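pipeline stage [seq->struct] | target=CFA47 protein | organism=Rhadina sibilatrix | residues=247
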Amino acid sequence: GVQLAPKEKLEIPVLFMPAEMKIYKAVVVIHVMRENGESWPYKVTAGSNTDLTRNVSVAESGETQGIVWIYPIHGTPEAPQQKSVVIRCQARQRLEQRVELLLIGVMPGAPALPDAGNSSEVDTDESSNTPEVTDGSSATLEFLYELQYQSDEIRSQLESLVGMQLVEKEWDRESRIVTLIFNVVFAPSKPMRNEATVVVQCTAGGLWKFPFVFIATEPEVDDVINIEAVGLNKESIVGFKLTSQTR
């Protein structure tokens, strides 16, 4: 019953308030008809685009009575942001640390989407994996995880220094908590402080984000150079080599 003038815009608010960590689907249907009830003349011929007939409502006379727009909506619940995980290592050293990430509110037995492996919200590139979490029953949950960076500059600084691998997973059906245990490797070459986010998505629905802070402290002193004077107003020279870590 909404009347629109020519060239007028209509805003349709969509509110999403998920109660559980699962996939929600809905469809927004917009049906437009003339105010005077008249139809638009439209005849289907051999050269007509048959796809157009799916977007119109046809009267008994065969004329177009209304135009229909259909917008599918897929709602993915996102858990509240977690506390930051701090990974600290001295520059020019290598740190290997186990990190536990708790996924709260996982829905047991929720149906997974057939195309979940091609999710647009979590890129499944080389750094991503699809671990399966099972509890010995027929229900199986799959997860996608990826380390995302705030900018390309941070990606260029961290990507070659950080590695993540899933080593263990547990699922408590009563509390609906999935624990993913990662082995994180951090091998910084110079002092830095950068942030990244581990994004985990369940194919049955739900998105979790875990901020990580990577801190590289000052490296150890390489050597102490002693210069012994040969006399007053005379130069003393000591030579030493420097090796570049990059090209």
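stage status: PASS
auto-comment: Residues 85-107+140-217 form a domain with the Immunoglobulin-like fold (CATH 2.60.40.2310). Helices lie at 152-158.
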